[in-house]
Amino acid sequence: MIKINLLAERRVTPGKPRRTPKIEVGASAENLLYGAILVLAIVFCGYKWWSLSTEMTQVAAQLDAANQEVERVREGLRIIAELEAKKALIERQVNIISQLKRARTLPVSLMNEVNANLPDFLWLHSMAENKNQVSFSGRATTSNAPANLYNHLAKSPFFADVTLNQITKDATGVNFSLSCTFTPDALAAPPG
C-alpha cells in the first residue's frame, strides 16, 4: 500500500523569516464594535426584562383592584336586589292594607247612610248585606215610620231598588222588612 502525504510540510528556508500571524488594528476595532453591540444587546434585553416585569406587576395590581371593584359592585347589586324584593313585599302589603281599608269603608259607609236615613220611632232588629244587596227587619211604633224609611232610602243616591217587603201590625207597633241595593259608587262620585 502506498501512502501519499498530501500535506506538505512547511519547510523553513534558511534565508526567509518565518511568518507569524499578525493582529491588525482594524480587526481589533471591529471586535470592539461587536463586543459593544453584544453588551448593548445584553443591557437592552435586561432593561426590557425589567420594564416588562414592572409593567406586569402594575397590571397584576390593576387586575386585583378591578377584581375587588367587581366584588364590590356584585355586593351592591345583591343589596339592591334584596331591597327591591323588600320594596315589592312592602308594596304588596300596602295594596292589601288599601284593599282592606276600602273594604272596611263600605260597611261603615253603609251604616252611616242607613243611620242618616233612619226616621224617629223606628228600630232595626237585623240587617244583612250580601254583594251589595241589603235587607232590613225592624220594629216601629207607627206605620208611617217604615214608609218614611222607604222614602228616605229611595231618594238617597246610595240605595237603589228599594222594596218594602212586609209590614205586620200588632198591639205594640209595626214589624217590617225591607230590601234594597247599596250603591257604593255614589261614595266615590263627587256630589252634585
Structure characterization notes:
The chain is α+β, with helices and mostly antiparallel strands and 192 residues long. The protein folds into 2 domains: 90 residues; 68 residues, Gyrase A, domain 2 (2-Layer Sandwich), CATH 3.30.1360. 57% of the residues lie in helices and 20% in strands. It contains 3 helices and 4 strands, in the order H-E-E-H-E-E-H. Strands 1-2-4-3 form a 4-stranded antiparallel β-sheet, with helices on one face. The protein is rod-shaped, with a radius of gyration of 57 Å.
Overall shape: it is rod-shaped
Helix content: 55-70%
Unreliable runs, pLDDT <50, ≥5 residues?
Answer: none
Briefly note the structural class of the backbone: alpha+beta
Number of strands: 4
Number of domains: 2
- What is the residue-averaged pLDDT? 85
Give the H and E element order.
HEEHEEH
Instruction: Tell me which oligomeric state these chains represent.
Output: single chain
For the termini, the CA-CA separation is 147 Å
Biggest sheet features = 4 strands, antiparallel
Work out the radius of gyration: 57 Å
